Amino acid sequence: MRIVQSARSPQPRPGGEFFARPADPTQRRYEALRAYLFERRSAAEVAAAFGYTVETLNSIVRDFRAGRREFFVSPRPGPKRAPAKERAHTRIVELRAAGHSIDEIALVLTREGMSLNRTGIAEVIAEEGFGRLWRRPEALRGAPRREQLPRTGVIDFERWPERVQTKHAGLLLCIPDLVALDLPAIVAAAGYPGTTVIPAISSILSLLALKLANIRRTSHVEDVATDHGAALFAGLSSLPKTTALTSYSYKLSHERQHAFLVALNHAMLGAGLIDGADFDLDFHAIMHWGEDAGLEKHYVPSRSQRTRSVLTFFAQDASTHNLIYANADISKATQAREVIAFCDHWRSLTGTDPG
Q: How far apart are CA 85 and CA 275, in angstroms?
């Protein structure tokens, strides 16, 4: 497409062909409107010059007069600062000077609430002129050692400070609901074990605190173990450590878990947290990532294949979306009866069949 110029029109200077042959649709619309409205050329001439029909040109003119005039894009320069990198700059320099690798620095920054990707850390290291970190002996590797955490125990309010700082005060907002459900009575009904140092209810509250704080693994409990808000929530001076929480989970038999579920469901029914009209049931395979697992193979949708995994079953109330039944001890031999097992569970609670 080429704009036809009259004999009296001056020849364009080098670069003028950009305006004579507009390739971008927005530019072409702009040039056509300019020729028709400003230069007062006829609609037929402008339409032919810019590859429009007369009807299309009339439509473009109508839209322009109605306010459609988005021809020029305002520049939007990118950010001139990197707040996350600036905030972590001093800590990165400090850790690198202590001889830590990029991976170790990234781990520490995440732990301290200043997450930064490897590229950002590498840029700071390069800007500060640090050289390459050569491979170190095994004993010298690893992130900076955590401080020695205090031993846990039942909270002593006489020794509790008058004022404390916490990042997890929001956990305390859950206490009224737990009291309304009478969680201590539910734990007692389940027969959960306690120790001479940590009562059963405190162990359960410690595990619950990790879930409420969005800490997915008990091995990461040290990130919040000394937080006063989390400790107060569990009724302890500090949260139990990884070994204590992990070993406690292993002590809980299937019978105790079922007893806990029955007591919890009774409390939820009494509090109106279960409607009971309809239920959502689902089997879910949790993939195993280790080796030599004594597990059966189940179909894992995310992998589109059968692989070694733990098969679980969940039932939730369709109206309130509250979980009312779960089982993570399902084999291929018992899978077919799991829905019936849920029906039996519901009948034992309410005296009626579900549905």
A: 49
